[in-house]
TrEMBL record:
It is found in: Cytoplasm. This is Pyrroline-5-carboxylate reductase. PROSITE patterns: P5CR. SUPFAM superfamilies: 6-phosphogluconate dehydrogenase C-terminal domain-like, NAD(P)-binding Rossmann-fold domains. Belongs to the pyrroline-5-carboxylate reductase family. The lineage of its organism: Eukaryota, Viridiplantae, Streptophyta, Embryophyta, Tracheophyta. Its main location: cytoplasm. GO terms for biological process: L-proline biosynthetic process. Keywords: Amino-acid biosynthesis, Cytoplasm, Membrane, NADP, Oxidoreductase, Proline biosynthesis, Transmembrane, Transmembrane helix.
Amino acid sequence: MKIIGDFLSLHTLQQSDHRRPMWVLTWLVRGYLLLLLIYTSLIYPFYVLQGAEHSIHFSPLFGILFAGVIFVCKMVASLMSSLLFGKKRQVEKYQRPPHDQEPAHILELLHTMFTRSQKAKQKQSQRSYGHNLYYSAKDLQKVGIHFKPSKTNTLMDVEFHPSIFYGTLKLPAITIESATESMLRNLVAYETAVSLDEPWVISYICFIDSLINDAEDVKVLRSKGILTNYLGPDQKVAELFNQIGRSLEPNTNVYNEIQREINIACESIWKKWIAEWEQTYFSSPWAFTAFVAASAGLVLTATQTYYTVYPISETYKLGFIGAGKMAESIAKGAAQSGFLPAPRISTSIHSNPARRVAFESFGVKVLPQNRNVVEESDVVIFSVKPQVVRDVVLELRPLLTKDKLLVSIAAGTKLKDLQEWAGHSRFIRVVPNTPSAVGEAASVMCLGGAASEEDGELVAKLFGSVGKIWRADEKLFDAIVGLSGSGPAYIYLAIEALADGGVAAGLPRELAMGLASQTVLGSAFMASKTGKHPGQLKDDVASPGGTTIAGIHELEKGGFRGTLMNAARTLATESFPVIRFFFLFFVSTASSLSGPLDLKMVIAMKLPRAREQRGRRRRKYHSRLRTDSVTRKVAGDEWLRLIMNKGEETRNSGRAREGPKIPTHSWDGHPPLVIRTYEYGPGEKVTASDKMKMACQFVQDSGISVEILCGQQSEGNSMMSYHYQTLSNEKFTEMLFLDGCFILQFLFSFLRKPQNLNIPFC
Ligand SMILES: NC(=O)c1ccc[n+]([C@@H]2O[C@H](COP(=O)([O-])OP(=O)(O)OC[C@H]3O[C@@H](n4cnc5c(N)ncnc54)[C@H](OP(=O)(O)O)[C@@H]3O)[C@@H](O)[C@H]2O)c1
């Protein structure tokens, strides 16, 4: 009766209900629920209903009637629970435990539905010391404890998950409205009346009462979806729980473990700091932006301070693999400019002991082996000749870890290959030139895939200490080699020619050389420092009717500009390094054999056409053939003139499409085609003309000018000529050129369509 009395006195309609939009409906529903509760609690306690349920065996009609009543009662309890938990988040569906007794009345049923959770029961049974919660919701939030709604809405489903820096408290989501207070008080009244061991509702109210001190705490829980407030201002909700909780005594068996863990988490100093940090810098996008900006500023300041205290020249060690002229000039430039102290530079001597003295004279460490240099250095520069760079890099590969910045100055060796040989792409390729020896190099660099901007900066500073450096795409490097790599040679030629002119005009040689060099130096300085266009500078010097313009006229007549342009352009041939290699290889191989050339080939072939590339190459070829420089250079050499004329003839007749016609020898029955020296007998005339055609075709297909091929060939002339002492220089050059071109063209053809060839060597 006490339960019913409490319920009746507390669960009455409020005056304020008429302000709610659906107040009539609410009134009716509540009235209905009230009547049903009284009805089912007073007149039809469950044991009666249960008996009635059993009576279905005796009277089907009577049984069906009372089963309906039981169903209605359960619906009532469910509806009432929705008053507390809201429509979306219903309490767990009531399942009658197998050995539990049926609830005696609807209030008990309601209580059971609010508090049933096996999971929570297990957790609570682990420890049972008396712990109270000393922190409100906003205090918990300040130390980084987050709130989340539980998955189920039984009052027992309260969980706390601590972690190193944060914690998460899960609470059932409840709806607070005007009926909630009556509901809670009825449940409290029920628990008090039946003296439960674990009064969950009372403990829950006390727990929430601890979390809520004022409207701020309600706001925290509301913002996290734990509370839904239909009651009015947050302060009213705070007062509701404070009022009910004030007269209640929590049971020490319930929520103890959770309260203990929360208290421990709140006392963690780390959590406090982290939560403070998070709230200060992540509370709004502006605070976060300011934090990021301040952090970036701090990092930059720290970096700047670091490099001020330890400048890059202090931290890096530089090693040269290849102690040649370039290495010496770069090392000297870096040491003498103060960029890198000499003791931080090292190298090793390969075979020439004089190089040791050269390096040690300005303080560079000379180590026993290449591997010692790599181990010692942070930046490794490969300054060996291009033909050995591959072997050297491959040999050192195990030591070339990614923490070492690798640099190559080997002419014509591509980054792709260097990276492949080294096993990583923190590689930079640099094309310097010889004036680096006097600190006036013109260098260009290109960064490999894994080389950072800082790496680029470092190399720029290093080569900047011996001149100027630019950055460019690697595909321009061939053109760069033609201009700045070979450029010094053109200028030396110009200086020499100017000096010769001076001598011819009666000047002493020494004076003429000095004047010529200083004139070139001063002019270059003017062009570089003033930034004026060279044409403008030239116009400034050439006064009308004066001697300067007369001299310029002479130069123009001689094709001075065209000659220089061609010289710079001719090296920009992509295939040049490969061709040079083959050319020298075959010429050397052929020439090192004594007597008449022993390289004999039995050829049964039809030369393939390679139409696809021919048009492009023909254009290149003819543009070169037309150049004044080449024409003049070869004017005295009959055989070269012949080759050029052949090229011209081929172009005019359109036969270039066909390719040269080499007589077809079948494998059996015909004498083999023998490549011999140009000193051939009458029976070998056909071969000689074939060579000429093949050489002509090679020049056309390769796109390399005759001049360049001859220049490359001259490198090998001296070492090979002793085999051919009977030949004049001119004949010897001719022989090498034709044989070399013949073999290369043969290979070209073979590589294009190997199936067209049948080449047994004998
Ligand atoms: N010179 C230029 O104007 C210029 C311009 C641009 C680029 N480059 C490039 O710079 C590089 C060096 O040119 P450089 O003029 O300085 O040539 P260099 O004077 O001939 O120097 C090459 C050095 O490499 C050494 N060497 C050879 N094999 C070696 C090995 N297996 N291990 C260690 N060292 C080895 C040689 O030693 P030994 O003499 O004792 O055998 C020599 O001291 C070349 O790749 C070149 O293409 C040069």
